Amino acid sequence: MTPLQLKQDPKILRSRQDGIFQLRCIPLFQMRDTPLRSVYRLYEYMCAGYHSQVQYETEYFYFHPDTARWTLEKIPDPQDDDDQRYAFVASIIEALVAAFNWRLSLGLQRDRSRLSFAEMSAHPVPLNRAPKWVAFVPPLPEPLDVGGTTERRKTPFEARNILGANNGHMYSI
User: Which of 5, 33, 42, 161 has the greatest number of beta carbons closer than 10 A?
Assistant: First the structure.
């Protein structure tokens, strides 16, 4: 679905994502789930304005038990044929990199442990990076307003001409 379709009919996500809270707790779902699927769920939630789901999905990704497979840098290029969705997905990944590095700067580890600032200075934690393909996703030729706002903020979304996308819900602890 396009960003505007999701914005205009957010209730459709209830049928598409019904039971997601329970699914996230099932080990078999976690094992079969992929980082790219999680990013596309974030895309749907952000377009539909389901901000609490953005927070829950971000936490699910960050604390996923298979951290070796669930790294941002390893997310494959979806080569999405919809330019708006492709730009949105690339922007989400860049926003997740910033949010995850912010958590790490606070000492919050992906295994749910916490490092003190002294431990962090003695043993710096490697920061997250976006996959290389994200840098090659161009901005949209026309502005896409998914939030109903004209307020301009410096975000990965704004860099790709996507207005009103609120990534503040990725910054929860």
Answer: 42
